[in-house]
Amino acid sequence: MAWKHRHLVDVDVFSDDDFYTVLEEARHMEEVMERPLKKVPALRGKVIANLFFEPSTRTRTSFELAEKYLSADVINWSSSGSSTAKGESLQDTAKTIEAMGVDAVVIRNREVGTPEYLIKKLNGACVINAGDGARAHPTQALLDLYTAWKHFGSLKGRKMVIVGDVLHSRVARSNIHAFSKVGVHVVVSGPRSLIPLHVFDLAEYEPDTKKAASGADIVYALRIQRERQEEGLFPSIDEYHSRWGITASVLSCANKQAIVMHPGPMNRGVEIESFIADGDRCLVLNQVKSGVAVRMALLFLYLTGGAGR
């Protein structure tokens, strides 16, 4: 199937066919990762620039591995140590990148709308959003979808509960779109102060985490930033854990075969109990592996149109 999209800003524009094209392609890429020589020439001669203006370990490393496994040439660009730290504007950075003749830009920035800005400024390069502000993290949503799809097979009719700070989470927004579109019933839970109004149009809200987890197939814990407690958005870390942390008691309300997911890094004893994080039902390491395969699939689809694997 030919890939019709030029840039990746978020998954809300994806059709069912688009999601399953990515999932199937990721399965092929995971086969590449399992070979003794984890390298294919699919993107040989392509140049990809990774622009990370926010701290990142998992996403940046995952993209870089994906690019190298596909034989692309890679330029890593971060705010520290670059001209941006010396005051260069994003527009000038974009012009510099374009002059280098790059084929794709992977961008992470704390400012919402940065991917669209680059799309307007770059004439030829494909732009892939690796997280912009609290709005979207499409590749995280797709790797989460792939992890659950591999585990369960069909996801239609499944139930997913997302617990935590939805207000500041770009992961939550993209996951709600992705999982809902493939037929998953999504419920969100957490302090009302951390649930934005627009979520009520997209998913069910249940403040009681045990009730929210009842019958769930996927229990997804969001990372809690401790500064939110300092802002008064919930009373204390201990109270947060007792009311919204993923514990054995919460998990007992879910289906017996339910899986636990987390975008990382995990705050043990806050949003998730160590016993759960280290248990067989927690698929965090599967998510990490899926991240490389899915990003390989996306880079291949966006830079080749899905032809020539």
Name some characteristics of this structure.
four-stranded parallel beta sheet, alpha/beta, 12 helices, single chain, Rossmann fold, 309 residues, five-stranded parallel beta sheet
Walk me through this protein's architecture.
- Helix 2 packs across helix 12 (284-304) and helix 5 (138-152) crosses helix 12.
- The chain has helices at residues 16-33, 58-69, 90-99, 114-121, 138-152, 170-181, 209-213, 227-230, 237-244, 248-251, 274-277, 284-304; strands at residues 47-52, 73-78, 104-109, 126-132, 159-163, 185-189, 204-205, 218-221, 259-261.
- The chain has 309 residues and is an alpha/beta fold.
- Strand 5, helix 6 (170-181) and strand 6 (185-189) form a beta-alpha-beta unit.
- The termini are close together.
- The strands form two sheets. The protein has a five-stranded parallel β-sheet. A four-stranded parallel β-sheet has the order 2-1-3-4, with helices on both faces.
- The chain contains twelve helices and nine strands.
- It folds into two domains: 11-136 and 289-304, 3-Layer(aba) Sandwich (Rossmann fold), CATH 3.40.50.1370; 138-287, Rossmann fold, CATH 3.40.50.
- 39% of the residues lie in helices and 14% in strands.
